[in-house]
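Re: that backbone. Tokens:
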């Protein structure tokens, strides 16, 4: 982890190349209805310019991937986790019925993706576009930077205002250069991972996998409890109505740094799974973990199996 990059994300503005994320344009009359029946959130309510998170789930409610969805005038722009574009594209295509008017386009072939984080992010965007960008969370609009027309959306924060830029591939270098010239600095994946863990955001293959359901992950903003049926809805609705989760995603304040993944124990019993760990400049050794509900009360101390390291359960995000 780079401490200068870390400080820049919390005090100024940083950029991260996100071209490994999948980007899919879903078009056609039934585009919203298709994604609505395959995922957890109310996609059919979205109006152009709006966006949301939603989870693709298996028939038993397990996480396939967490998607960001933006409604455009003539399409849905679907954004996947890193390297999950092809699997999600295939999953969507397999679920298009013969009478669905839906087409899928691999937007990753035409558009790059860049994240802008930090308390100075909004100021930089206003400076480069000539206007303040006032968007709700996951809202999206068209703007221009360095003469390149692009899409910009607000995203969940890390250290302050955060935005995603969807840039025509041939304009990526010009937009990146303009952001750097305006004062943004690059951030590497290891540093960004520390900030992610501090905020309690799940990552694909660690907190986001078919081992878990969205309620255990705390993805309440990605789940509608009033929409109609969708794949996995019965299991998720049953767990919500009973209020009984086997485990839930928590933070751990660790006694020492530890590698992940790892098993958790308490009084000789299985207490859950540590999924991501880091050493934070602000909070010291920390981790994200799925802790069994009986041990998930803040302040409970669990052990990391075969290490001698202990972790105190804390609510997310981590706070001073």
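Recovered sequence:
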């Amino acid at each position: 982890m780079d401490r200068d990059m870390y400080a820049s994300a919390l005090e100024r503005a940083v950029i991260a190349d996100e071209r490994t994320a999948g980007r899919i344009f879903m078009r056609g009359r039934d585009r919203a209805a298709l994604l609505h029946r395959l995922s957890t959130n109310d996609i059919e309510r979205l109006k152009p310019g709006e966006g949301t998170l939603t989870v693709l789930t298996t028939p038993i409610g397990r996480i396939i991937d967490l998607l960001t969805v933006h409604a455009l005038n003539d399409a849905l722009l679907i954004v996947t986790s890193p390297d999950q574009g092809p699997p999600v594209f295939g999953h969507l295509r397999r679920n298009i019925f013969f009478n669905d008017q839906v087409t899928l386009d691999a937007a990753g072939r035409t558009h790059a993706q860049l994240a802008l984080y930090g308390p100075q992010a909004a100021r930089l965007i206003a400076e480069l576009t000539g206007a303040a960008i006032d968007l709700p969370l996951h809202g999206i609009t068209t703007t221009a930077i360095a003469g390149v027309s692009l899409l910009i959306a607000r995203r969940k924060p890390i250290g302050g205002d955060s935005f995603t830029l969807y840039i025509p591939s041939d304009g990526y270098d010009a937009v990146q250069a303009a952001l750097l010239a305006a004062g943004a600095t690059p951030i590497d994946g290891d540093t960004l991972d520390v900030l992610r863990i501090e905020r309690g955001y799940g990552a694909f293959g660690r907190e986001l996998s078919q081992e878990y359901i969205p309620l255990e992950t705390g993805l309440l903003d990605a789940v509608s409890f009033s929409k109609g049926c969708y794949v996995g809805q019965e299991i998720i609705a049953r767990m919500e109505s009973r209020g009984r989760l086997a485990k839930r995603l928590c933070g751990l304040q660790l006694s020492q740094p530890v590698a992940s993944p790892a098993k958790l124990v308490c009084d000789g019993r299985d207490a859950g799974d540590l999924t991501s760990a880091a050493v934070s400049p602000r909070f010291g050794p920390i981790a994200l973990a799925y802790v069994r509900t009986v041990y998930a009360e803040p302040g409970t101390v669990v052990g990391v199996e075969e290490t001698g390291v202990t972790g105190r359960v804390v609510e997310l995000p981590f706070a001073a």
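Residues 51 and 283 are 32 Å apart (CA to CA). The two ends are 20 Å apart (CA to CA).
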